[in-house]
Design a protein that fits this description.
The complex is a heterodimer of chains A (196) and B (206). Chain A is mostly helical and 196 residues long. Chain A has helices spanning 6-14, 27-33, 37-69, 75-97, 99-105, 109-113, 116-127, 132-159, 172-187. Chain B is mainly α. Chain B has helices spanning 2-15, 26-31, 36-59, 69-91, 93-99, 110-118, 125-155, 172-175, 177-194, 197-205; strands at 157-158, 161-162. Classes of the chains: A mainly alpha (196), B mainly alpha (206).
Chain lengths: 196, 206
């Protein structure tokens, strides 16, 4: 595998390999939460934050604990425990020291544990054999890409609130169609860079 | 008892179908549906994991402390997912590579967690097992339906066998991400029109 610069991975994770629009990760909360710009921005920030640190932690644990012990097959359990534990820890810390931030992010933090994007980024990192810097860039980029997609979506959904939508398409249906159109638009970026 | 089992099967397959009724677990529903073979394997994998996790959760439900049950459920699910992953790697290495991280992502698939939490916690093991099978089958059917259209229009093939002939011009759009979003939206639209809201609410209550 050729070495890709972390900066390239960072931008690719935002635009061409966007977590939602090309890898379909984090769809559940994407559809449920994306009705208001403000809340989706908070959720996006929380996801970016958690993604950055869990990717880093999972990288360290995978390469310095699991591989030397020959326990690679346990990675699913280990990753999900690290993510859950990290989210709990962060929740306690910001509740104690940054109450203002807790009010903004607090309710979203438990949701993030089951957000497939978080686990997905860690799994992609293992499959694609990223180095430490590459993983970090990938984690931050994916988080920002996810935020970008959910905030844009919330903006569009606020605009179409009063539009006459066919009855069966209300809610999830129309959201999926808009996501499809957004994904089409994002394919326009694919000429810039492609990572596999 | 037979009536109850029948009701569970109908709810899992149709009335409370996890994908188009409850909009759960759609991450993987979208990602693996470009080929029918992948969808079938993914569906069977999920069916296995859901059924056995529900069985296990239901068996130990009386001894699990309430406040750590989420963690216990996650661990049970992960254990079964690892079995599926190792099995696929050993016997179907090509499909395992094609599915990539999505096998591991079965863990965060909300269908399993949702069924464990809402059904297996309060029901005896055999019914939970059946419920897991039915929900998994409902998921598999939707996956196969989406991938049928996507593979047919995108490659002109079904399960890798050429159906539409050489003259068919493939719709590249169908195998790209937007095709998946549009297809799922259409399926949700059709099924929403076929099942009136009222009857689904009655089904959920009973």
């Amino acid at each position: 595998m050729i070495e890709i610069s972390p900066i390239v991975i960072f931008f690719a994770a935002i635009f061409t390999n966007n977590m939602i629009l090309s890898n379909f990760l984090g769809m559940c909360s994407f559809i449920a939460i994306s009705s208001e710009i403000k809340t989706s921005l908070s959720l996006g920030q929380a996801v970016t934050f958690v993604l950055t640190f869990t990717t880093l932690l999972n990288y360290l644990v995978y390469h310095y604990v699991l591989i030397p012990l020959g326990l690679e097959y346990l990675r699913y359990i280990v990753f999900i425990i690290i993510i859950a534990a990290f989210v709990q820890l962060i929740e306690m810390i910001i509740d104690r020291y940054f109450p203002a931030l807790y009010y903004a992010l607090g309710i979203f933090l438990p949701l993030i544990t089951v957000n497939c994007a978080v686990l997905g980024v860690s799994l992609f990192m293992v499959i694609r054999n990223y180095s430490l810097m590459q993983s970090l860039a990938f984690g931050v980029g994916s988080g920002i890409g996810w935020t970008l997609a959910i905030v844009t979506m919330a903006g569009i959904r606020q605009k179409i609130k009063s539009a006459p939508i066919p009855k069966g398409l209300e809610g999830a249906g129309i959201t999926l169609i808009i996501t499809g159109l957004m994904a089409l638009a994002f394919i326009g970026f694919s000429g810039i860079v492609v990572i596999q | 008892m037979a009536g109850k089992s029948k009701k569970i099967i109908i709810q899992g397959l149709w009335k409370d179908n996890p994908v188009f009724r409850q909009i759960l677990g759609i991450c993987s529903a979208l990602a693996v549906t470009n080929l029918m073979m992948n969808s079938l394997v993914m569906g069977l994998g999920l069916m296995f994991v859901t059924a056995f996790s529900e069985l296990t959760v239901s068996l130990i439900r009386k001894w699990t402390p309430k406040h750590i049950r989420m963690m216990v459920q996650t661990l049970i699910i992960s254990a079964y997912v690892i079995i599926v992953d190792i099995f696929l790697k050993a016997y179907f290495p090509t499909i395992s590579t094609a599915l990539g991280p999505y096998v591991g992502l079965i863990i965060t698939n909300c269908i399993i967690m949702g069924r464990c939490e809402s059904f297996a916690q309060n029901n005896p093991p055999h019914l939970s097992f059946l419920d897991g099978l039915a929900s998994g089958a409902g998921y598999t059917i939707v996956l196969l339906a989406i991938s049928f259209v996507r593979e047919l229009l995108g490659f002109g093939t079904l399960f890798g066998i050429n159906v539409l002939g050489k003259a068919w011009v493939s719709w590249t759009l169908m195998i790209m991400p937007p095709g998946a979003f549009f297809m799922l939206a259409i399926i949700i639209w059709i099924t929403k029109n076929m099942i009136p809201e009222k009857s689904s609410k009655e089904g959920a209550k009973s």
